[in-house]
Amino acid sequence: MNDQPQKELAIKAAGLVKKFGEERAVDGVDLAVQRGTVYGFLGPNGAGKTTTIRMLATLLSPDGGSATVLGYDLATEADKVRSHVSLTGQFASVDEDLTGLENLILIGRLMGYTRKEARDRGTELLHAFGLEDAARRQVKKYSGGMRRRIDIAASIVVTPDLLFLDEPTTGLDPRSRNQVWSIVRTLVSTGTTVLLTTQYLEEADQLADRIAVIDRGRIIAEGTSGELKASLGTGSLQVRLLHPEDRPRAEQLLAEKLNTSIILETDPSALSAQVSDTTQASTALSALTKANIEVTDFSLGQPSLDEVFLQLTGKPAEEEEAVK
Amino acid sequence: MTVSPENQKLRPEMETDTEGAREEALRRAISGGARPAKPNGIATSFTFGWRALLKIKYIPEQLIDATIFPIMFLLMFTYLFGGALAGSTGDYLQFLLPGILVQTIVTLTMYTGVELNNDITKGIFDRFRSLPIWHPSVLVGALMVDGVRYTMASAIMIILGLILGFRPEGGILGMVAAVLLLQVFAFSLSWIWTTLGMIMRSEKSLMGVSMMVMFPLTFISNVFVDPETMPSWLQGFVEINPISLVVTAVRGLMHGTVTFAEISWVLVAAVILTAVFAPLTMYLYRNKN
Ligand SMILES: Nc1ncnc2c1ncn2[C@@H]1O[C@H](COP(=O)(O)OP(=O)(O)OP(=O)(O)O)[C@@H](O)[C@H]1O
Ligand SMILES: [Mg+2]
Fold first, then answer.
1. Could you tell me the domains of chain A?
2. What residues make up the domain containing B58?
3. Which numbered atom of ligand 1 lies nearest the CA of A26?
4. Are B36 and A106 inside 8 Å of each other by CB?
5. Chain segment B137-170, per-residue pLDDT in tens
6. Total structural domains in chain B?
7. What is the pTM of this model?
């Protein structure tokens, strides 16, 4: 059957470029996304996440490079691509003047359901997403979390083979975020491929099978969350000292024990370092105690996106923005 | 009701039960979106028309322009200019009504561009563009509902005109034909506004530009006065102004004096406008950044 090529990769892109005037918003992106997996696009504001997704969803035509989506060529078979993918944009992608149910009926009808089928499908989705009470309320009166869910519901009225989710949880509280995560997990368990963008490492870590770190239109790292972490250290050990004058000694000691460069924070009594495992961190801490350096506070955290950038580019993300 | 210990123990189980049920519902709902056959362009146009009707339901203020404007315009111009221009308001009304009907409907077409521009500035536009549908239906559906508004406005205006003493020689048939011809022209003219709606960055700038086009076109025409009284260089413009062509045909149909050529000119103008601006709109629609 001609559905055969779909078996391999959901997305295959080579050298995608998009220019806005002089600016290269996307600057040579290569991608290989396996079917039935979640792929995370991690990057700061302006990295080119939305632009890449919009190209892959046929909303923008690339200025360079090529891609196949579900086996269909982006440039020549855009209609076929549109039939099988769905996009939940970064900003509300439903009609705010209409109710939740009307929005879902609208999409259902446009996809080819009869009036009754569209209504039934809409009701079913609203129920599943915990929005049944808001079915007859205009979307503009929804809370941020409800809005995100109706956005996603509208994208899966007809179950897509590939779903693009652009920053699905930005601005949501932890509870709403968990609801969105569980929707994504369920979706993937039924066979849909998901490409999502996020600014949060934790989200990519929780959801994505593979992650691409994107900055200034380029992919600067790619791999499973484990691979990325291994290259970055499990996280950063943050230490605050009782006496700021101890800091030079502590720095030296930690550098010896951890065998990595130590970051001196703006707080004169604080310093931090990348560590690859918890044993290493506790060895380092006990070494400080043995040397009579009093520690008031310490924490071992996942690397933040900033630290990822520091590690990958040698520069903090904001600094790069400023240079530009 | 008193809660027995047994009941309390049951609670958590019930909760996990509903929890499990919800999860099951979620799974079923998510995988339950079977792909139906692709609908045709007529069906999707009607669906977009349904959306436009819902918008009127939620924002009925939208209809103010289609109801109050015609009344205001007709009363204002009849009584303001009637005496001065035609000697009596009654005589002037016979001349003015067809013209001002055209002006009103043509002005209403501008709102089509505004609606589209609003959609673009919101995320819904991307959603529509990513659907596997016949894409002109997004606009055709909206234009169909605009037709309903034009019909409403025309009816209000003609009825008020009849009350004020408008006596068309062409009778009912002539009036219906006039309104129909006007609708055809309005549909074709709308594509100019959708083109502008695609290009302009905000509703404000869109309205500004639309007004700049509309004002000279409707006023430097034969809507209000007979061009005979104008300097000859101005007459030249009035004669080729498409609005004048429409007014001449609509006036002719209403008063039963229309010629085949007059109707043909309007249809030619409509075909040209649509042939140029509909594809241009769709080109911009496809290539919107
Ligand atoms: N339509 C456009 N016209 C001009 N420049 C644009 C346009 N869209 C995006 N850009 C620019 O391209 C760059 C990448 O933008 P993009 O929206 O893809 O970033 P992003 O990673 O999605 O950021 P965010 O996290 O803020 O959503 C930015 O510098 C942005 O200013
Ligand atoms: Mg974005």
1. 9-229 (3.40.50.300), 234-302 (3.30.70.100)
2. 41-287
3. 14
4. no
5. 999 999 999 999 999 999 999 999 999 888 988 8
6. 1
7. 0.81
